[in-house]
Amino acid sequence: xxxxxxxxxxxxxxxxxxxxxxxxxxxxxxxxxxxxxxxxxxxxxxxxxxxxxxxxxxxxxxxxxxxxxxxxxxxxxxxxxxxxxxxxxxxxxxxxxxxxxxxxxxxxxxxxxxxxxxxxxxxxxxxxxxxxxxxxxxxxxxxxxxxxxxxxxxxxxxxxxxxxxxxxxxxxxxxxxxxxxxxxxxxxxxxxxxxxxxxxxxxxxxxxxxxxxxxxxxxxxxxxxxxxxxxxxxxxxxxxxxxxxxxxxxxxxxxxxxxxxxxxxxxxxxxxxxxxxxxxxxxxxxxxxxxxxxxxxxxxxxxxxxxxxxxxxxxxxxxxxxxxxxxxxxxxxxxxxxxxxxxxxxxxxxxxxxxxxxxxxxxxxxx
Length: 367
What we know:
This protein is of the alpha+beta class. Helices cover 26% and strands 35% of the residues. It has one domain: CATH 3.30.1330.40. The protein has a six-stranded mixed beta sheet with strand order 1-2-5-3-4-11, covered by helices on one side. A six-stranded mixed beta sheet has the order 6-7-8-12-9-10, covered by helices on one side. Helix 1 packs parallel to helix 2 (59-73) and helix 3 crosses helix 4.
């Protein structure tokens, strides 16, 4: 097993970023046991509480993982489920890994709910108030397009409970099953919704969150789901980087997200780098059919954004690595094993058929 923990220390507060990948070839139940035993030990040793969490595995693996998590977390479980996300088996086996963002040094945590079901948390300390939602979905809405619209509406409803709206959101994750079949439709839904909410449009200051839209579906019958973070206080700390590093605005080719965003997180300054691929400044896929070159250029594109935001490799606290096929994953491990970012790697379709690889990264600097 590989478990990587980055700890950011602020004033009377710590942020913990945990990335856990299980031992390969073991049965999912045993993989889950080693992962959640280790996560529990980290959380309890720091007296930390989970803020946001996600787990990636095959459908049958996640059934076992859910039971193991419940057993090992015990009283740490406040009822907010992680984002349970379905991916094919990878080099690690049926459980690709688990990521946790936790906070230590809090007096209390407020649990948010939608229609009585816990779905997120708010942490408050030292004049900072920070919110995270996980696995918001709407399978009851029917078609993929209708589910996407309703998913956004539900997220907005929960945000309003905390006195904010989508204009307070620095980062979203869009988990989109069968992405290649309906990504353009999803973009239309998101663009329309953001325009209606004053985040896009003629004469409007563009305020698009950093985001990942990836071909991974939720493990609950829904076609899509989303996670997000939001800043309640201080709102003025939130900035968006529409164009970043080596790439122009993604909105120029139809996707409503910023290349990165920056915000005051509980213990520091956090930079969210959106899901990034081998795309040039004109919006064209580069290095077609060349996995090694796409991986190399993707990493360079992320690093360019980090540099622009005054962050370095040492500041990266979490990353997610998306490989289109096991063959691409093999190239990543063989050629780029020295990438120093804490990571979970998995198999997933990227938003274009000719894209073989995508990375997202989160960097945090103590303040």
